[in-house]
Amino acid sequence: MSSVHICLNNSIAQSPCNRGRFLNLEKESILGRRKSVIEFSRGRVLTACLNVDVEAPNSVGKLGLGKKTEVVIEMESKFLVGTYARAPVVLERGEGCKLYDVEGQEYLDLSSGIAVNALGHGDPDMLKTMAEQASNLIHVSNIYYTMPQVELAKRLVAKSFADRVFFANSGTEANEAAIKFARKYQRHTNTEGKEPATEFIAFSNCFHGRTLGALALTSKVQYRTPFEPVMPGVTFLEYGNAQAAKELIQKGKIAAVFVEPVQGEGGIYAATKEFLQSLRAACDEAGALLVFDEVQCGLGRTGLLWAHEAYGVFPDMMTLAKPLAGGLPIGAVLVTERVASAINYGDHGSTFAGSPLVCKTALTVLEKISEPDFLAAVSKKGSYFRELLKQKLGGNPHVREIRGFGLIIGIDLDVPASPLLDACRNSGVLVLTAGKGNVVRLVPPLIITEQELEKAAEILRQNLPVLDQDNNNSN
């Protein structure tokens, strides 16, 4: 017998789980009875840790998984709300562009926490900043001023079109704030006694979040249907259809247009300069606001700090999140002074947003990502990776297109991509899907090396035959 020690929540003192208060779950066998003891201090659980004795840690269990993995999957199915169809991997630690599971398996990470871990795992500068700030001040709420929040806002303004910043905790929260700001702006600027514009335009294949407002702007019907009625007044147009957008904006009922310069979840589709220019002109003429959602494509992912820089078109608001704090939760809405002037005390807020710990970490991430040499390297590696993929995969009949720029790349297939994802994972490479499940999405840490990209491309090539096997099995 060997001991599996899985800490589900660290104690305040960061002591090992076998010290102080803990939840001790004893396991007589992998499928045997469990006995649990929860110890509390002053009504609170200080730590929640799991000690599990299992046999042969790398052996295969009844699910075809290692024993340690099986234990965690069993517990997850009992204690967590089932909102995720997870891959059967229990990740334990990471270093650079590599992840390691509880069985000791190594993976090359081309998912980076869904485009979040821009600096990879365990970046030393990030860790140093986090430790220093955590030892000083973690959270005080937005009742008080803190320097890290002000400093981060100042740097974001200096590096963008914006004049002011609102902080949130995620991309969907940033988009919720932008929705409210757009509505308030229209009410604030309506001086003629007419009904203010309250409607929105979004586009096919878009993704703006899962809370009810952001969900109403998200194109996938299956995401919205279970929760209807969602926020009314949203019209979805074909991504890239400038004429249809112009005609609708000109009617004067559109508060704001939400658009991703490069769609991530939707399948790695990039806008054209003409499309974004047309939206900008139509919004200016009608008094609507143009909102760029750069939650996934911003902050260096394309090889530019902001994806919209490639087009020379600038928004009234821009929403950010994923990579801004390198893995800590943060969102942001960057706005012009014109928009900010419509927002008053109490119009919006957040308890956790803009905490000293997260903002100080984000400052470190932002400074590293925005270095010209860093961005140039992302662009170079992206071009190299796309060409490599075209050489290795382009001749396969299932590969319709390889698109994207920088390190946000999509491999468009004529069959579902999930068999290829599974095969790559079993071969030690983690990738994602996008679109309608037929696009392999590659969003590795921005620090990935050319050698690691070569390894990933070769593993993708080696596993392409599973698409034929799956297609034959379905016929």
From TrEMBL:
It comes from the Eukaryota. This is Uncharacterized protein. The lineage of its organism: Eukaryota, Viridiplantae, Streptophyta, Embryophyta, Tracheophyta.
